[in-house]
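Hello K.,

You asked for the raw outputs rather than the summary table, so here they are, unedited. I folded two proteins back to back in the same session to keep the settings identical. This is the first:
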Amino acid sequence: MCDAAGMVVGGESAVRVAGPWTHREITANGIRFHAVEIGSGPLILLLHGFPQFWWSWRGQLAPLAEAGFRVVAPDLRGYGGSDKPPRGYDAMTLAEDCAGMIRALGERDAIVVGTDWGGLLGWTMAAVHPTVVRRLAVLAAPHPLRLRVGLLASGSQLRAARHVLAFQTPRWAEWQLRRAGAAGVERLLHEWSGPGWPDRDAAARYRQAMLIPAAAHSALEYYRWMVRSVPRPDGVRYARAVSSPVIAPTLQVHGAQDPYLLPSTAAGSDAWVTGPYAWRRLDGVGHFPAEEAGPAVTELLLDWAGAP
């Protein structure tokens, strides 16, 4: 959506993209979530990352539904058309949001697929709510404790994630992300992806979504909690909670050219998995595998999810 001068503008209509799916609302953990749903059968919950919204899964929604699954892709807390409360951007609350959505959808468990922050929440759910996660697929996201190790032990990973430190500055970081029609969002998409992505449509949609009131602040609060909680009691409790082994069958997919969360950081996450585990590294792909290599990711997910 652009104004008369061609400037990208935001509004919740930006995330109401038409397609073969149905838009719906889900109430869980005390707040309202916007989501899209398609298909019937066992539930697959698709969790997006930063700086995206549910639309990042557009290439997987219909194929997974056609394979016999009920597929739901929500906007996470603070993103897109979902509520943007002033609190609750810690990983434990966010994981409870997702577990609560599964219950609110009338299911006991789900196949959980997450990318970036959605992947971190997938790891968290599998450790903290193991009975809710039937199978887990994680894209572009090391296990949370593996990420901590990478940031503390690897100068390369710390330099690669320098944006996380820049995100800590109140107001200034929001302004940087939103100024000039959220041009900062498009810049990050280009910096973190492999060659040839994003296209103009994807860049415009993610810019529009970040201009929704309070979306930029909410998205940055995830990163602020991540850094500031480390020495605090809530961070210690979180680290202890996610140290529980993941028993769900787990697929981990990572772009070989991810310049933000390095493949060397992601590799080794299986140290926290006791269930069946598979690692897939995608050549020529950066931080957004589901969009940069959509057909390949869809095929991996279909093979891994198996018949309903």
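The second followed immediately with the same parameters:
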Amino acid sequence: MHAVILAAGVGQRLGETAAERPKSLLQFGGMSLLARHLHILRHYDVCTITVVTGYQADQIEHELSRHGHGLTIDTRHNPDYRRGSVVSLHSAADILTGDNPILLMDADVLYEHTLMKRLLTSRHENCFLLDRNFETGEEPVKLCVSNGRLIDFRKRIDKNLQFDFQGESVGFFRFAPAMAGSIAATCSRYLADNRQDEPYEEVLRDKLLDTPEAFGYEDITGAAWIEIDFPADVQLAEQHILPRITLPGT
């Protein structure tokens, strides 16, 4: 398994809360999100990691040097990090087209480590994590399920789409080598078509709609996790998520 962590974004919506740090370096319980990712991946024997950097890349490189012991870590720099996240995903195209299964992760998530176990041990070789408990609105990236199968994946779902239920995507994914390679090829097409401002989720959605039978999901409803986008998320993370989670081995 080769983990790809997307950590290139600016995090403008955090404002002064970020204090000119990448979101992945926000600290919770005296430990950055990035350091937490590395600790959890190491625990589950995912020891080959590529981090896509962009904004304040030197800070991320320094954090990797401090917490990357026992891991094989390299980086891919995205100089166009102010464009859509599809550019960041494309920056790791050489990793996606390799022979290994891929664990794709957003860097800005605080979570209990059992989520990673669920993803790594899932029977689905192409897998999403889905949480049915989420706030409605346009911000969450939603997964829609009908007859036990994923049928859409987007922030804005067509109001006419019929489904049994929906949940929020955690932002962690697992892909078999063939699917990862196909994702890389689709990223290349996006860039060739001048779609550099698209989120990478649109690429994954294309793959899902093309071959829905190839994908599955794990329902992690009730697990403790939060994506950090706004100052209010930081407060929620500190007050409600952090007290519910522990790092493996502690």
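The longest helix spans residues 177-192.

Happy to rerun anything if the numbers look odd on your end.

Regards,
P.
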